[in-house]
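sorry for the late reply, my laptop died twice this morning and i had to redo everyting from scratch. anyway the thing you sent over, i finally got around to it. pasting the sequence first so we're on the same page, its 252 residues, then the predicted structure underneath. double check i copied it right bc i was rushing
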Amino acid sequence: MNEPPATTGPPAAGRVLVIDDDPTVAEVVAGYLARAGHHVDHAADGPQGLALARAHRPDLVVLDLMLPGIDGLEVLRRLRGHDAGAQLPVVMLTARGDEADRILGLELGADDYVTKPFSPRELVLRVQSVLRRSRAGAPAPGSPAGPVRSEDITLDGPARRAHRAGRELSLTAREFDLLAFLLRHPGTVFSRQELMARVWGWDFGDLSTVTVHVRRLREKIEDDPAAPRMISTVWGVGYRYDPARDAEEDRS
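ok and here's the structure:
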């Protein structure tokens, strides 16, 4: 099991929707979240979860992938398919051996995951970490707040909106944080461990989370994600945002 993320500051309490068909797991999770100051709604299947998400607009969803009716991955697809859900933070609950589903969930835009069996305290810490980071105007750790412009990308930190060439980008909370961090550090190479610490705020975690989010971000800002020009891979080291490459190559 991954270690709990590092957290700083007061808990970011909010309205949390727990979608899990196991009544014991749901009761324990809801109890721990409520004691941490969160308002908790519970849905026992996919259709009910989607209905509650539309009705109550939660601040975060804790989503089990193994659900009756509509499975968790399809729930995540539908949540991400609506503008109102584009930046809705989602923490997945997955079985330890379901790596393929875990990666697919991250590719669909989940912000974090916890593998079963899990510590309820770890889940609360991860929920609070994701909530704290997803609040409007919250910059990535180590990054100053405020608007950023680089090449044809404009990022408004307080509004948590990003545009490229005048077109608004549909980014999840984690994708926005990653883009904000890279834009504020052009030309600097960061390892996956460094990005996990400085963007996610975690001291430990699955580094594939960073890899998947970089891939998703490339799909949204690169002209050709298969041959990225803005977010470069520095083999054996990590990733670098280098807008100068666009200008240099366009002049060649």
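Residues 147 and 156 are 4 Å apart (CA to CA).
thats about all i looked at so far, will dig more tmrw
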